[in-house]
Amino acid sequence: MRDALMAALSTVNDPELHRDLVSLGMIEHASVDAGVAHVKVNLTTPACPLKGQIEHDVRAAALTVPGVQEAVITFGAMVRPPAQPALPGVKHVLLVGSGKGGVGKSSVAVNLAASLAMDGARVGLLDADVYGPSVAHMLGQSGAKVTANEERKMRPLDAHGVRFISMANLSPAGQALVWRGPMLHSAIQQFLKDAAWGDLDYLIVDLPPGTGDVQLSLTQTIQVTGAVIVTTPQDVALIDATRALDMFRKASVPVLGVIENMSYFVAPDTGITYDIFGRGGSRKLGDHTLLGEIPLEVSVRQDADAGTPAVLAHPDSPAALALRQAARALAGQVSVRTLAHLPDQLTVV
C-alpha cells in the first residue's frame, strides 16, 4: 500500500516549483497503518508561503488510495543551499537595497529577518549601512558591543532570534565615520569573513542607499543568491530604484522581487484608504515579482524606535501581516531559484 501512496503523492506538485513532491525529495516519510496514511513533507523553507495548499493537496491525494480513510500530514523544513554556498555555514545571502534613502529599507530588512526567524529559519542580519547604521537601534541593542570569540572572530549579537552585526555596536555612539572606499571594503570583508555567523539559512544584508562602494564590495566578494528592492510608490523613488535594479543587473545579482513600502494609509478613525505617495508605482519597474505592498502605519515607526520589530510587537496589524507575507514570498523565491539550479533531488523515505 505504501507504493500506492507514493504513486498518489507523485501527482502533487509544489505550487511554486512546479514539480512533484516525490521527485523533489520533499517526502521524508510515507506509510499506511490501519487505514491511516502518515505523510511527512520536508518543505524547502520553514517560511513556505503555500504550506496550506500543499497540506490540502497531499491530504486529497492520500485519500484517493484504496483503503485509506484518514491522512495525517506533518511538516519539517530544510533550506537547500545553492550549488555554491555564499560563506561557510551560510546558505543564502540576500541583499536588501534601494536607490535612495527614506523609503524604509532598514525597517523592512529588520522585519524580514525577524519574520523568517519567527517561522523557524536560522537568520543573520548584517547592517552594511556603515555611515548610517540603524539596525541595532531597531532591534533594541544600540548599547551592546560586539565581542570576539576564542578564535578572534567577531561574535554576532542576538536579538529576537536574529544574529546581527552593525557598525553601531563597534564604534562610539554618535561618532561619524569618515572612510574612503578601501576602508569600507575592508570593513565589509571583516563583517562577512571574520565573523562567527555559524549555520544560517539566510543572511540578510541591509545595504546603504544608492549604488556605491559597499554594494560593489559585496557583489565582488561573495556569491549572492539575490536581492530585494525596497521602494515607495512615487516617481522620485522609482527613478532611483531603477538605478538600483540596473546596478544589480550589471553585477549579475538576480533581483528576487520588489517590496513597495508605505504603499497606502488607512485612517484609523474612519477606515478610509489614502494613497499618500500614490500606489502601485512599483509595477513600473518592469517584470519583477511584487513581494508585498506594505501600508504606512504609525506603529511600525513606534516599534522600530522601541527596539522591537513590528512583526513581533503588533503581529496582527495590517503592516505586520503584509511584512510576514513578503518574507514568505521572498523565501519562496529563494527556493524557486535554488531548485532551478540544482539536479533532481533524491527522495528520502
UniProtKB/TrEMBL annotation:
The MIP18 family-like domain, residue ranges: 2-71
A Pfam family matched in the record: ParA
InterPro entries: FSCA_dom_sf, MIP18-like, Mrp-like_CS, Mrp/NBP35_ATP-bd, NUBPL-like, P-loop_NTPase, YlxH/NBP35
PROSITE patterns cross-referenced by the UniProt entry: MRP
Binding residues for ATP: 99-106
Keywords: ATP-binding, Hydrolase, Iron, Iron-sulfur, Metal-binding, Nucleotide-binding
Biological process according to GO: iron-sulfur cluster assembly
Iron-sulfur found in the keyword field: yes
Molecular function GO labels: 4 iron, 4 sulfur cluster binding; ATP binding; ATP hydrolysis activity; ATP-dependent FeS chaperone activity; metal ion binding
Gene3D superfamilies, alphabetized: Fe-S cluster assembly (FSCA), P-loop containing nucleotide triphosphate hydrolases
Subunit structure: Homodimer.
PANTHER family found in the cross-reference section: IRON-SULFUR PROTEIN NUBPL
Family: Belongs to the Mrp/NBP35 ATP-binding proteins family. In the C-terminal section; belongs to the Mrp/NBP35 ATP-binding proteins family.
Annotated function: Binds and transfers iron-sulfur (Fe-S) clusters to target apoproteins. Can hydrolyze ATP.
Record's protein name: Iron-sulfur cluster carrier protein
